[in-house]
Automatic annotation (TrEMBL):
Coiled-coil intervals: none
Keywords from the named record: Signal
Signal peptide region: 1-23
One protein family per Pfam: Lipocalin_4
Chain segments annotated as transmembrane: none
Protein name, entry field: Lipocalin-like domain-containing protein
Domain Lipocalin-like span(s) in chain numbering: 35-125
Length: 138
């Protein structure tokens, strides 16, 4: 019975591997869900052909990191820890994903970004208007 379970698990894993490597037309999209809470980590830009990223100066020293919470309901919440007392200010809006574009509207301001990287641990965005790169971590 034990060897039967092992064979079943191996067959299931092989099947999942084969389907994950199929050549469907997903335009480079990742299958990692976008929803989740992401802590602001780094910001930067491209200099020539290289990314130059620094620790996000928006994070107040001694406070928790600012965050972007993308919810299943397409609500977006930006959390900003501000001032010497690290007071949390949350601003709510919406987001829409279209292929590898992410459009977020918070506080009446709409930004559209390319999703440069989306993994279980990182969301990296590049603002289409300004070219600013923002890295969030889970």
């Amino acid at each position: 019975m034990k060897s039967r379970n092992i064979l079943f698990a191996m067959a299931l894993g092989l099947g999942m591997f084969a389907t994950s490597c199929s050549s469907d037309d997903n335009e480079g999209e990742t299958i990692v869900p976008l929803q989740g809470k992401y802590n602001l980590s780094k910001t930067g830009t491209m200099v020539g052909t290289e990314e130059v990223l620094i620790d996000a100066i928006e994070n107040a020293p001694g406070c928790s990191r600012d965050y972007l919470d993308l919810r299943l309901s397409n609500a977006a919440v930006y959390g900003d820890y501000d001032g010497s007392n690290c007071a949390l200010v949350e601003t709510t809006g919406t987001y829409v994903r279209s292929h590898n574009d992410l459009t977020v509207t918070i506080g009446g301001i709409t930004t559209t970004s390319d999703i440069m990287n989306l993994t279980n641990k990182e969301l990296k965005l590049k603002d289409k208007a300004t070219g600013v790169i923002t890295v969030y971590t889970r």
